[in-house]
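[[Local backbone shapes]]
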Amino acid sequence: QVQLVESGGGLVEPGGSLRLSCAASGFTLDKYAIGWFRQAPGKEHEVVSCISWSDGDTYHIDSVKGRFTISRDNAKNTVYLQMTGLKPEDTAVYYCAAAVDWATIETICTMPRYEYDYWGQGTQVTVSS
């Protein structure tokens, strides 16, 4: 069974850190790019960060640059999103998704959601004091 499973969400105070994990099973990520998306209450899905599995190139939206880092562990077939300096506006359900790695990471990261092949179920991140 092909699936992506996110974990690592939770409640954290402003300025705190969390590390999200996206573990793939039923397929290997070596031909895919992985994107992290988020959806805050009442808002559209928003791409956050992406990583190319083939060359490790990364992309982050401006609002998380310098605070979020995306990385991958080939042996574990897992992608991570390290989030530091969290702000209340980072509160959202975070999803990971996989798309075939066919273009630059910026192109893949900014393409429509329906272009992605697999999605996880999401993990809640709440930043509040």
